Amino acid sequence: MFFVSSIPIQPDVPFGPPHERSDAARNRERLLCAARELVDEFGVEALTMDALACKAHVGKGTVFRRFGSRAGLMMTLLSDSESEFQRGFMFGPPPLGPGATPSERLMAYGEGRIYFVLENGELLKAAATNARNRFDVPATVLAHRHIEVLLREAGIADPWVMAMSLLSALDPERIVNDVRVHGISPKRLTDSWRELVTRLMGSS
Amino acid sequence: MFFVSSIPIQPDVPFGPPHERSDAARNRERLLCAARELVDEFGVEALTMDALACKAHVGKGTVFRRFGSRAGLMMTLLSDSESEFQRGFMFGPPPLGPGATPSERLMAYGEGRIYFVLENGELLKAAATNARNRFDVPATVLAHRHIEVLLREAGIADPWVMAMSLLSALDPERIVNDVRVHGISPKRLTDSWRELVTRLMGSS
DNA sequence: ATACTAAACGGACTGCGGTCCGGTTTCTAT
DNA sequence: ATAGAAACCGGACCGCAGTCCGTTTAGTAT
User: Fold this and answer.
1) Which residues in A lie closer than 8 A to residue B192 (C-beta atoms)?
2) pTM for this one?
3) What is the pLDDT of residue B55?
4) What gap in Å lies between CA B69 and CA A2, rounded to an integer?
5) Any idea what DSSP says for residue A100?
6) CB neighbours (10 Å) of residue B2?
7) B113-127, pLDDT tens digit by residue?
């Protein structure tokens, strides 16, 4: 018998549950474990909520209470990699992190994001489908703010809206489609992103 | 032997079927009529395939044979307005149509598209959800080619990819979200688009 | 008119995401 | 130890998109 770490790892949302019941914690572990196995073995598509509940020996209601929706589950599965990526552009070394010019940082951001998407594309797509609002999810809001700040420093007139536009250009579904369907190489994507940022922000 | 379209992939959009049986034609009219009524009265969300079949006094299978999917039905409902918009940027007067500089035309395109999206947002969103590939639909391919040509004239290094990026910035879901959720005014959207195009293409 | 065939029909059926609610388990206070 | 409440559990249930297949019907050839 082992006890699950009572330290709120970083499961559902900010400031994890104040007092999570032990059975709830046990089931959450089971579910995440089973989910990763299913994804690794059969791909994201095969991860249905019924299959997950069955594999984790848990009722279907439990799955939805824990993660809210299929999209919510996918976000949880992504949260570790996403956090790492976020640390990179918030606290990491330049040019991605602080210390470079806004233009350089934005280029590095897009480049990093493109490769991140190419690694986690299926998960990201699944996390975006049927989400009440795929734009107002924490990770996206954070990315938007980051870009907004860089654009403001560069003297863009409406950084909020422009940040949205740039973020759209990094949409996972679009990037995956370019690569998988049209055979566009990652290099072309990053080169084009650099050109976009260069022309948009000049050398600032 | 005539070449009857045995490929139900596309909705019957281009130049109606060669030899459509009379009952098929009758049912298609019924369905389109009923669909428009349902949308007008209860909104796009309420347009379920069951409700439509029921209202048109037609079997469910007939609905799917005709339109392939819910997304296909939505595209059919959009096809008139979409064609009109397409005529505008292909053959219409400048600055949208031929005769203006690429930069001016691209600005006009985005502006027109934004207002088009604000008028047909729900339909466009519904036409994009669960479509096997929301990017490879005829209307989108055409828009992409148009932008690609303008960008090439302006000396962009990789017009194909850049056109994809710009097209992403005009994604219906994103625009509707900006306006409806964040209260961004259409003017801010079009102004920001102009700024983007200006910086991207200079004065060319 | 009649017979024949390919196309169209319709509705039962499947699979999936998501909800609901009566029963059970864990925690806390006494 | 015990009782009570809050949180949790599970799986039956729902609505919807999409499929399947036995039946009907429109067009054609005789």
Assistant:
1) 157-158, 161-162, 165
2) 0.89
3) 94
4) 50
5) B
6) 6
7) 999 999 999 999 999
